[in-house]
Amino acid sequence: MSTRPALLEQIPKGRLFIGGEWTDSQSGRTLSTINPATGETLGVVPLADATDVDHAVRAAHDAQPAWAAIPGPERGERLRALARALREHCEELARLDALNSGNVIAGMRRDVDWAAESLEYFAGIIPEIKGEVLPTDASALSYTIREPFGVVAKINPYNHPIRFAAEKLAAPLAAGNTVVVKPPEQAPLSSLVLGRLLQGILPPGVVNIVTGDGPTTGAALVRHPLVRRIALIGSVEAGRAVMRAASDELKTVTLELGGKNPLILFPDVEPDDAAEAAVGAMNLNRAGQSCSSTSRIFVHRRLHDAFVTALLARVRSLRLGPPELEDSQVGCLISKEQYEKVLTYIEAGKREGARLLLGGSVPEDPRLQRGFFILPTVFDRVRHEMKIAQEEIFGPVMSILTWEDEDEMVRQVNDVIYGLSAAIYTHDYAAAHRLARRIEAGYIWVNIPGGHTLGSPYGGIKQSGIGREECLDELLSYTQVKSVRMRLNTRV
Fold first, then answer.
1. Is residue 256 annotated as a catalytic residue, yes or no?
2. Are 173 and 473 in contact (CB under 8 A)?
3. Annotated catalytic residue: which of 167, 185, 291, 471?
4. Residue 107 per-residue DSSP state
5. Quick one: 169 exposed, middle or buried, by C-beta within 10 A (0-12, 13-18, 19+)?
6. Would you give the DSSP letter of residue 135?
7. Domains of the chain
8. For residue range 113-147, what is the model confidence (pLDDT) as tens digits?
9. 98, 202, 397, 398: most buried by Cβ count inside 10 Å?
């Protein structure tokens, strides 16, 4: 059976999506993209250079005035039409992302659904793009107008390829901007399929897709003078690079970056519930490659032993397997580079004295030998200063830290450069409210193992990012405020 979904066959090979058409790259350079579970090459895509990026940005710039002039309700209907197209092709898109990213197919289906729901959500709140009339004296009128930036650059990561490609179009398009998307170099194929779906739904040039890497394609996009608004989802290092490049022209930037997120377990939680939360919040269906994974588990000393027993039993029951198979529960890492990075962190944990309870190696299953699979890994007796407790691993590695004193626990929770999310498990809701205020993170879950709600602002503090997404704030962030003061007396 072919590993290439049928919709992918409709994409011209080796092309960029610019101005509503499939266009040859001027650079002639290419990138191969693989199935990380097998090493099989799935396709070859262009490595767009500055000339290609300029072509895409100018197409977006030329299309923007007409797109912004379309009434908001009609723009919203175009977004809803794209949501319908995503749902119609859900199985093909989910399978393609499973093959190209190594994430299990069940999670990829949910990604398609989330992208469609996001498009519908932002289509519905377009009327909230409105100005204000300001109090003044009777002889004058003061009011504000919200206007789009123009061309928006979207730079996406590999852990949610189709979700981010489609979902992150919603707010800028709803606000009247046009977009140039740079898909992840490791998993670009579903973004190109999105270009195929866009044809006939959005006018030419409203969305453009340029494949390539960060140093060449991403850097050219960030530095282009016609790009005034940039949004990146990625690592802290990538965020710093984007901010440096954008600073010359003082561009507006949103960054959703990494996390070293805590799961805090109080002694009143049932061990099995705590273990289920720890596994669910680690996003192992993506092999832990999620910025919101709760990789630091702070368990109260009275719960520790029972929790560890339950956690190990729960982790041992998980099924690693080819991501496209329905019964697979744990996927693989995206690349050899990431695979080797995670193994290096595991060795660091052992070297610094953490106790390896489970995993820490590659699976013995012969079906998985060609892929970048690492067994879900559990360390105990982790100290706060250890590398595995301080740095984002972006892999299936859980670190258990034990606590008794709440103040000291909170100090350790906050004593990292990140501040994206945190999860608290307890039946003491006074304690939960207290901790939610004390923890330095942008998104807090209480007795919920992760997940987002549209309308609830998502984003980090400290070096986990700038800005909020998935809410009205995100929509308004793609507009600029203009003030108008007018004298009503016609005599000047």
1. yes
2. no
3. 291
4. H
5. buried
6. P
7. 6-257+465-482 (3.40.605.10), 262-453 (3.40.309.10)
8. 999 999 999 999 999 999 999 988 888 999 999 99
9. 398
